[in-house]
Design a protein that fits this description.
The protein is 22% helix and 30% strand. It has 237 residues and is an alpha+beta fold.
Length: 237
């Protein structure tokens, strides 16, 4: 082997050693990145804006992968968690889905039934009543005969709200309690049979039906003497 061949062999060996060194360096960088980023897990991103109190389905979200260490502890990693739940706030497109954004829809208890009525948006605590809230249902009636005072009655005390629908324009009718061009919101309640009949009667014959939101932990019962109000009765006090 002459000197030129020896130099060629040496250069080849040096090239191989440099290649191994570069490969080792790349592996070291990859290992360092993996140690800093960690394993990836599945998360879910909101495809488009979702309005509050809207029932949720898996089709409203897209699956993505991202490092587990970058996810918050309450991030949703199993899409089945949205089954039977509703949004509790505005869900914005591109946001990661988290447990505190959703809540299970209130369910009926034994002896209860669902009933939905239209409530005038301007007088029904618009925007403040949410599924799971407790409300008192009031109705105002004209006097039974001419000269009798009008009355305001508590039809149902402590009614549980199951669902709040979308704002809807009411058709103009002569007997429309909301008035021409008004808007109303369909609200679904969980009521027992007797309270369902009370609300049905009020919706059919009352001049107005209104809701009063009960504060969490507030008193849900009303004394019998306080369930009916008339203006002459108030003046006597």
């Amino acid at each position: 082997m002459n000197s030129r061949q020896r130099r060629g062999v040496i250069l080849l060996l040096l090239s191989v050693l440099c290649a191994f060194a570069a490969f080792a360096g790349v592996l070291s960088v990859i290992s360092d990145v993996n140690s800093k980023v960690g394993p990836e897990v599945t998360a879910y991103r909101i495809k488009s804006n979702v309005a509050p109190y809207t029932p949720l389905s898996s089709g409203q979200f897209e699956e993505i992968s991202m490092p587990k260490r970058w996810l918050s502890d309450n991030a949703v990693t199993d899409i089945s968690e949205v089954d039977g739940k509703i949004a509790v706030t505005q869900l914005r497109a591109g946001s990661l889905l988290q447990n505190d954004m959703i809540v299970r829809r209130p369910a009926l208890e034994a002896g209860e039934q669902e009933m939905a009525i239209m409530i005038d948006a301007a007088t029904g605590v618009a925007g403040k009543i949410t599924p799971g809230a407790t409300v008192n249902i009031y109705a105002t009636f004209a006097g039974e005969k001419e000269g009798d005072p009008a009355q305001s009655k508590v039809i149902v005390a402590g009614a549980k709200v199951l669902d709040v629908g979308k704002l809807t324009a009411l058709e103009s009718k002569d007997n429309d309690r909301g008035g021409k061009g008004s808007e109303a919101v369909p609200i679904t309640f969980a009521l027992n049979t007797w309270d369902t009949q009370r609300v049905t009667y009020a919706e059919s014959f009352a001049e107005h039906v209104r809701l009063a939101l009960v504060a969490p932990g507030g008193e849900k019962t009303i004394r019998p003497g306080d369930r009916t109000y008339t203006l002459p009765k108030d003046k006597d006090k």
